[in-house]
Structure formats: structure tokens, C-alpha cells
Amino acid sequence: MDIVVRGPEPTDSERLAVDAVLGPPVSAWAGGFRDLAREGRISLLGGSEARSQRHLLLPALHAVQDRFGWLPPGALAHISRRLTIPPAEVHGVASFYQLFQLKPGARSQVHVCEDIACRHRGGLALEHELRERHPGSEEVEIHGSPCLGVCEQAPAALVLRHGEKTGGGAIGGATARAVESALESGSYPDAGLDWLKRAVPQSSQPEADLALLARVGRCDPASLEDYRRSGGYSGLAKALAQGPEATIAEVVASGIVGRGGAAFPTGRKWDAVAKAADPERLVVCNADESEPGTFKDRVVMEGDPFALVEGMTIAGLAVGARKGYLYIRGEYPLAVRRMEGAIKAARAAGLLGDAILGSGLSFDIEIRRGAGAYICGEETALFNSIEGQRGEPRSKPPFPVQNGLFGKPTVINNVETLVNIPLVMREGGAAIAAMGTAGSKGRKLFCVSGNVARPGVYEFPFGITLAELIVKAGGVPGGRPVQAVLLGGAAGAFVGPEQLQVPLTFEGTRAIGATLGSGVVMVFDDTVDLGDTLQRIAAFFRDESCGQCVPCRVGTSRQEELVGRIRAGKPLGSLAEETALLDDLAQVMRDASICGLGHTASSALQSAVRLWGPGILNGAKVVDNHG
Amino acid sequence: MAEPFREPQMWFHAPPRPTLVPMPPAEASRPVVDLVVDGKAVSVPEGATLLDACAKLGLDIPTICQHPNMTPVNVCRVCVVELEGARTLVPSCSRVAESGMKVSTNSDRVRASRRMVLELLASSVDLSTAPEIQKRCAEYGARPERHGSPEPASPEGERDQRVPGHHHLPEPGIARRVAQPVKIDNDLYVRDYSKCVLCYKCVQACGDEAQNTFAISVAGRGFDARISTENAVPLTDSACVYCGNCIGVCPTGALMFRSEHDMRQAGTWDESAQKRTDTICGYCGVGCTLTLHVQDNTIVKVTSPADREITHGNLCIKGRFGYQSVQNKA
User: Fold this and answer.
1) Are residues B269 and B184 in the same domain?
2) Contacts with A, B 270-329, CB within 8 Å
3) What structural domains does chain A harbor?
4) Which residue of B has its CA nearest to A578?
5) Domain count across chain B
6) Quick one: closest CA in A to B114, which residue?
7) Where are the beta strands (DSSP E) in A12-126?
8) Are B201 and B241 members of one domain?
9) Do B196 and B270 fall within a single domain?
10) Residue B21 included in any domain
11) Minimal C-alpha gap between B15 and chain A (Å)
């Protein structure tokens, strides 16, 4: 493959930033040009080897963005040459992600969450204030952001610093003062155990029965010793003793289904990959948690990183994979650091790498950072993102178990699913299956946010009702009534105050036309303008559509415009005609889009209009018939 | 007496003369799958798509982003059909036929989706040079006007700079469009992205499905997704080699010969007065078929039929654009 790179030559520092990730060129191909001075000392062959490195595109772009705060053309040209990727495609990938900038940016980027959990709790006001205090400077730039996954401490902000000392962190309960002090000091409030204790209110309740969250806020997340002392790695030891088939049988017996939202039986997925003809298999952990209102995976990675390493390792050994990829969303710098630390410690202790725990088996994990794209949480879009392509979903079939990452049979599981695995091994599949309800086995993490006294991640065996969960989270402050609850996030559905008795199980939510999704329980009291929330949800999907297929690319845009018209009191024709159009848009997105984003882009809106009529878009309040 | 003929001593042995006339290898019989489409049984070879099965039955399925010589990208979603047991509709252009499938191609559900897809395209894209799609809009009763009045064209280059995510909602009653000024940066062809339906065909043709030049890619995200060179530089600063194979596969006229564009602007373009003549390109020995489009005894553009074995519709810059020498009048 011959590519034409016409971009400017990189500066020395640009070259260094890229080469720090890619290593020195091993062949003239890996430089993309013939250097006569080096000919004879460096192989001219190696084209396919250079091209096979395309999966390093995202890490290389991150390195440049971290170093310079934007992607200078010279650096992009150098990446093109080094990886033999046409410059147009590098541009196509770079322009896909929100956290990459193609124009010079300020040294510090402040992302203020303006999504549904934060906007009513001071997020919009904070963004406004910060913009006034920092009008375009070289030092600080303010961005409105989709959900940052810190909903339990709304309003949330994220600071990302570029330059030689790169870094970043999240700020909960953010004020302009807190953001500025983080900018000045370079230290963030997410560093200590307090941060985790706030995220898991149950951690300070000794009576709470916790297994998945048992260590979060209680154990040092950097200490492998702590992890092992508290029962960690006994699951892996058991898996090694039992062998792969028995391990998969255990997972099948547990009845665990995927916790990312799609609820596919985990054991069946593993079994399909274990039986694949191709001996090269992969494990991918989907930690691109971006569903508005979801923050459980972040909390687990920050608070109990070794559990995820152990879960992935068991998955790898069970299906015969030697390699795992952990794809963490770009907005979670702390989770990335904690997972990096855990992987390093596990490697040093012989728990990753060759001959795990003295067995003949090997497995290792590589971390990939996302760069601001909700769609990359879609499993096939995530594969494309890792492979250095635009994060556009693939057509299914073929499914990942046949043809996943790099075309290999792939197990892809969500973080919460994988941290269940050590538990399944330790307690036995039957014990897990005995927990919960007939259709929903085991324990579940709920992301409770919005108008409750103690928002946070909660762990309960399946079966708890929505009303009980709200009480556990301290109820609605000030004794205000519940106006509505959003279940499953922006891709989920609203339920009304008369539906609070719904059991939070897959079958229970399905029975009332809602969904458990990723476990989002966002409570809105009677002060919230739900029309504004719905407008934001519509804007979210317009922002996050990858743009590949027509129903979603144009449909999400039309849906947003339609909601805007009704909210402005300027419907085209009658309100009934507009409602019919909203239904038509919902149907084409649900029926004809390529992936889950389009399929669910209308579901929350539809549920609200179905429950409360189109007036809800325009300031009407939910009337509580039940007192 | 003449010397008897003696096989000359050679340092190699000539291979024996063939006893059989060389023939192309016999078509290996591919296993067949049986399915039911619109209540009619049909058999297609393994690996065939639902669209192939429909074609075999003579069913008329609308397509936009499908091209006979290219890997399906299934992005326009206008060819969707209903597959029994599937939660959503499936794209017939890429879904491989399996035995026992039951497919409906014209149910209310299918027609509703097609109508909306056409409506969404017609409300956001200028389809004035895409008569096939216009016909489909009429056939399916698309009403693009119910999405609002068209947004004014964005200033030159503005769409190319849009960043993913954050955006502004247009005024109430305004429907976003991709409208923007035509990009004219070379003498051979223009890029009018107001007419782009983002079918990915040009990217495929420029990439590894034909030309292997990789001058363009899809950039941006969502409604702001667009076809772009690196950093949206003009074609003349890109890797473009002006083969024009992207024009050949563009279904909407977004990519157009400069000659055609200029004549359309001047109001002199008249397809009904054009004669098409197939000939073989004389520039080299490959033997590509050229279709000369001639109006008023002047070649106005050159295409190549997609079904010819030699180039499958692809040409190089000489074949496609090097026709002026024919009509230089002294």
C-alpha cells in the first residue's frame, strides 16, 4: 500500500510524542519514506508489519493530544507515515472523537456536565459561570459535556490537562472555586477513599450485604495484598483448578446475563467462543460506560480494580484467549490510572502474563482509552475503535463470538458482568442462581441519581422494587413527591409515580414496557422541567449518532428539531400531527437503524409522551394521582 | 537421402502438447439455500444476499448505497425487508440468505421505513440530480416538507470544521440540511456535498475497492459527518489522482464532471439530446470500454459501463478526462 502524505514535517517534539508510543521505526516502511542514509541498516521490507499496527492509531492520537492539547498537522502526518494509514483516514478517525481537537486548544480543558443528572442540579449554572470567568484564554477552555459518569455527585466537572505534565481528574459537587483550585493545584478530589465512600453510600452501612461492592471505599484500591486478603484471586485459583469447561459450566449455572444493558446470557457467550474453530480468541471488557446516568463501572474500576483484572483473567482462561483488551472511556482518567496500576501489580505477582499462578496458561490485558464517543460503547463500534477505524458499528450478523475484534472470536463483556465472575467462581454458580428472581439471577448494581438524599451505586440481589430502592437511597429530599423516574438511562424509559412498585428485574421492567438497561435509576421530583430533560435526551442522541445510517443520522436530528418546535410552542400543523411524526421517526429508527443507538434513540421520549401526552414536552407537569 | 529429422538437443524439455483445448475451470457447484420471499419459494447459491434472491424473483427493491461491484455498506437502509423472527428490519443488500428464511419485501412496516428514509434524505439533501431517488420518493409517498422549512446553506467550509458532539438547535420549524457551496478546486470535477447522501461509495472507490488512492474518508460525526480529504484540504493538495472513479459510483450527482456542472449552470445540459457511444480506450493496451456522451457533436463526459469485465466501470484519468484531443478543432 502506497500512501501519499503531504502534511507538514513534524517538529522534533511532535515526532518524539508519537514515537514514544510507537517505538522507533523498525523498517523504512514504518517511517513511510526511504531514508537513503539508513538504507542497508534498516529493512525496506515490513510493509504489512507496519500496517498491522493500525490499532495503535488511537493511542498515538491520545499521546499527541495529551502533549499538545490538540492534534497538529505535522504530528498527524507523522502518524500517517509511521502506521501507513492514509492521511484522510487519520483525519476521519481524529474528527470522530469529542476529546480530540483539530485546532490549537488551551492547556487545560474543563468539561462541565450538562446532561440530565447534572443540568438541574447546578450543572448549567456552573458552566455559565465558568464561561464568564474564563472567556477564551490559552490556559483554560470550558466545554459543555455529555454525561461524565459522576452523577452521584452532581454537578460534575472533568479537568484534563495537557502539556508535559498531563493528567486529569473529576470533580463532584463542582463549584467554580473547586474547578479553579484543581486547575491551580493539579490535584483532584477524586484521589482519596472519601470519593469512593460518597459514591457507595452502603460502604458505611455495616448491615448492608455487599459482595460486588464489598471492597469499594473500604480497601486500598492500589493494594494487591488487600485484595487477596479479602478473598481476591480465590476465584481464579478455583477456575485454574477446575479447568475451562467446568468454569464455563459454573458461569452458565449462575444464570448471569450481561449487565451492560442487552442482558445476553454470559455463559452462552463464553461457550460459543470456547467452541470456535479459530484458536486465537480475545476477551474485551467494555468499560466505555457513557449511558447518561450510569456510573457503576467507573466506581468499580476506581474502587476495586483487581476484581476486574481477575474477572477478565478467568474469562480469558475459560475461553482460551491469551489477550484481553480493556476499553475505558476517555472521560475516566482515574479509572485508567487505577486499572493500569492493578494490571502492573498483577503482572509483577505472576497473576497476568505467562504461566499464571504457575499454570501453563498465559493471559495479559492491554488498556485502550476512548476519546469521547458514546457510540463506542456499542460492541462492534468498540472493536472498530480499537482497530483504529472510525467508531462506526458493524452490521450483525456476524456476531462478535464468531467475528469480533481483529476478526477473531471475541468475548465482550461489561465491567459489572466481569466483576461478577470471581464471585461466581468463589460462591459457585448454583449459589448465585439461587439469588434474585426466576428471570433475573444474582446481584445487581443500581446507579441511583437525581433527587434522592443519598445518590450512589447500590448493590442488591435482584427483586428490590423501585420504591424500596428510592427509600434505601434516602427518599426524595424535602419530602417532595416523585414526578418521574428514568430507568435505563437516555436509551431507557420513564416511569410515573404510579409505577414505583415495579420490581427492578429484567422481567419486571419489561412487563411495564420499561427496561433495566444499565441499571440507571434517575429520580425527578416535581420541581424538574421534564420537557427540558427530554429536549436534552433528544440533543444527546443527535450529538452521539455516528452518522453512518440514514435513519439515525437524520432521524435523531429531526427528532431533536421536533421536540424543539413543540417546546417553543411552534408546532408544524397540529400537535396530533407532530405526535404522529414523532411516532414515525421512532419507528424508522427502531426498525431500520444499524445499531442499538438508533434502536433506542426514541425510547425515553416515546415513553414520556405515551405516559403523559405531548404536553409534557412543553412545561406540563406529571400529575400524581397517588397522593 | 535427407537426414532423418532429429529432435534437437536442448537443455530443457518442452512440455507435452496439450491434448485438450484449454477451457475455463468448471463452475464449482455451490450449495443452494432455499427461502421464501413474499410467499414465493426461491433458491439461491450459498452466500447470495436477500437482494439477490429478490432479483431472482424479479422484485423491485429500492437501493441507494448498493453497487453491484462493491462490498455492501448497508447504510442508506432503503432496501430493508422484514425477516420473520428478526426484531428489526434487515438490509437486503448485505444480509446473506439462509435456508428457511421467510422474508416480506412490501409489508406496511417495510414501506413505512422506506418512506421515512426517503423523507429524511429528501428533507436534508438536494436530490435534484438524483432522478431515481426522486422517483422512489413519489412512489413511497415521502413528505419531506413535514420536517420543516429548509435550513439556508452553511457558509463555505463551515461544515468541514464542525466538531463532534456539541451543536446548536436551529430555529423552530427549520429542518437541518447539508446544503453548502459547491467545491470547485480543479478543472476536472466538482464536489457538491449539498447532494451527498453519505453512501460511502466514493470512499470505497477511492480506497481498496478500486483505485487504492485513499484521498478521501468520512470525517466528523452524526449529522455533521461528511466526505473529506485530510483536514479538508483542496483535492489538489490531497492524494487524488483524478481517476474519477468516485464520480462513476456517485448515485446523486454530488460528484460531477466539471463539463457537466458548467453546462448545467449555463442551462445547456440536455441529456435527451445526448448520444452515447461505446468504444475502446486507445491510450494503452488494457482495453477499457469508454462510453462517450456526446451532445452537439462534442464529447461532454466519459463513463464506463459497470458490467464490463475488464474494469468494472473504473477508468484512469486519461480514459475518463483525456478526450479533448479528439475534439480539438484547429
Assistant:
1) yes
2) none
3) 12-94 (no CATH), 108-191 (3.40.30.10), 224-433 (3.40.50.11540), 443-525 (3.10.20.600), 530-618 (1.20.1440.230)
4) B146
5) 2
6) A588
7) 108-113
8) yes
9) yes
10) no
11) 36
User: What is the sign of the dihedral through the CA atoms of A23, A24, A29 and A34?
Assistant: positive
Grid coordinates 502438447 are at which residue? B17
Dihedral angle over CA of B102, B103, B108, B114, nearest 10 = 160
CATH at B323:
3.30.70.20
Query: Do B102 and B232 belong together in one domain?
Result: no
Helix, strand, coil shares, percent, chain A, to 5: 45, 15, 40
Nearest CA in chain A to B214: A86
Residues of chain A neighbouring B207 (CB-CB closer than 8 A): 86
Q: Do A601 and A556 form a contact (C-beta atoms < 8 A)? A: yes
Which residue carries 515526532 as its cell? Answer: A15
For residue A154, which amino acid is it? A
In a domain, B3, yes or no: no
Strands A456-461 and A443-450, sheet pairing = antiparallel
Chain B residues with beta carbon closer than 8 angstroms to that of A550? 75-78, 117, 120-121, 197-198
Considering only alpha carbons, which residue of chain A is nearest residue B227? A92
What 3-state class would DSSP assign to A27? strand
B214 contacts chain A (CB < 8 A): yes
Element (H, E) at A484: strand A482-487
Low pLDDT (below 50) residues in chain A = 32, 625-627
B83: containing domain: 49-154+174-179
Nearest to A549 among B77, B169, B174 (CB): B77
Q: Residue B112 belongs to a domain with what CATH number?
A: 3.10.20.740
Per-residue pLDDT tens, chain B, 330 aa: give them: 566 666 666 666 777 776 777 677 776 677 999 999 999 999 999 999 999 999 999 999 999 999 999 999 999 999 999 999 999 999 999 999 999 999 999 999 999 999 999 999 999 999 999 999 999 999 999 999 999 999 999 999 999 999 998 888 999 999 999 999 999 999 999 999 999 999 999 999 999 999 999 999 999 999 999 999 999 999 999 999 999 999 999 999 999 999 999 999 999 999 999 999 999 999 999 999 999 999 999 999 999 999 988 889 999 999 999 999 888 776
Contact between chains at B219 and A73 (C-beta distance less than 8 A)? no
Residue B274 corresponds to which amino acid?
A: Q
Task: Enter the ipTM.
Answer: 0.94
Tell me the residues of chain B between 85 and 114 that have a Cβ less than 8 Å away from chain A.
Answer: 88-89, 91, 94, 96, 109, 112-113
Asked if B221 lies within 8 A of A101 by C-beta distance, the reply is no
Using the Cβ of B220 and the Cβ atoms of chain A, whether some distance falls under 8 Å is answered with yes
Q: Of B173, B219, B225, which is closest to A553 when you measure between CB atoms?
A: B225
